[in-house]
Write a structure and sequence with these properties.
Elements lengths: L2 E3 L33 H15 L11 H5 L7 H7 L26 E7 L2 E10 L8 E5 L10 H9 L3 E5 L17 H14 L5 E6 L1 H12 L4 E7 L17 H9 L3 H12 L9 H12 L3 H17 L13 E6 L13 H4 L5 H11 L3 E6 L6 H4 L1 H14 L5
Parallel strand pairs: 1-9, 4-5, 4-6, 6-7, 7-8, 8-9
Antiparallel strand pairs: 2-3, 3-5
Length: about 400
Amino acid sequence: MGHVESATRWRDGCTWLNRPWIESPNLNTPDLSPMNVSRHNLLALVSACALTVCVASHVAFAASDNAASNPAVSVSHSAATDAAGGNNAGNDGPAYGPELQGFDYPAPVEQFDFTSQGVALHMAYMDVQPAHANGRTAVLLHGKNFCAATWGPTIRRLSEAGYRVIAPDQIGFCKSSKPEHYQYSFQQLARNTHALLESLGVQRATLIGHSTGGMLAIRYALMYPQDTRQLVLVNPIGLEDWKAKGVPSLSVDQWYERELKTTADSIRRYEQGTYYAGTWRADYEPWVQMLAGMYRGQGKQIVAWNSALLYDMIYTQPVVYEMGELQMPTLLLIGQKDTTAIGKDAAPPEVRARIGHYPELGRLAAQTIPHATLVEFAELGHAPQMQDPQAFHKALLDWLAAAPENR
């Protein structure tokens, strides 16, 4: 029964050009249907994209606790759109490479090179060492529409508290590989993450997962219970089975066609309505541009294709039925105004009405997970670490200091 409270190298944006498989690309425009993209032509597109992003403008973003929680920076949706380029230019903004070349992260980015499913891959990650170590490691797992960079303020606060902080981009996301063919599963992503930690000499860690990263953190903890000191779930999706509740299945091809239509405006509208309870602030905008920039570049097809495969994974691989098997101390940090549910827009009205109710989902999860503590944020949505970082980090750090460890 849960307890309830109120409440291996640096790479910049251009050094990837030195990868040995990019030599003399054919820059002719190929057939970009995902199943017809040849490896030769795909690499040509990636090379052309690199030449563009190395001279592209960089997004200026510096998320801090004070700025993110200061009402003075709040703006209307219209003002946020204007700041991004005007109401008549809904997709204006920087173009980034398919691996987010050109977008800066809050700490040096390194790469873990490995082979999975017969494919050579690289997994981007930040590894931030504290000035005064407490001997513990925190691993931050990002959500579907987020990247490791969005954890910037949390990385800083955990590091100040003595934690070594490792924040990877999962395969298929952000600065990591986006393979043409990959059998995505939460088990596979957990294995990739475990291999990364082993390569860094990390044997046990506290897992902190947000959104889809929460589903991954649950799967990791189930697969590697002895390696998981504590588990923190920040508005995790997967607290319900959307398929069982009537959300219709979409094929990978349907997901792909939807993803190809992604623009800054579509991202902003979705996040404002689903993540932030209808509100918008200027400090959310860099994360819109982060995602939209990959869809403005010449690598948008491979970005969209991997996104489609990942949505299929999320929809078809629920973790809700296994939450009762988690034996480590677990913290649930739940913004009560979150309404996230995968495929919700494709569901009939009567189904939409009964999914994505996070007050209920969080409390049920706290009752199901044996050693759970629930902290609710009444006025926050899907990303409490962004909406009110001061309240979020206080709740997180207080619990980490007081909660026992998994033995």
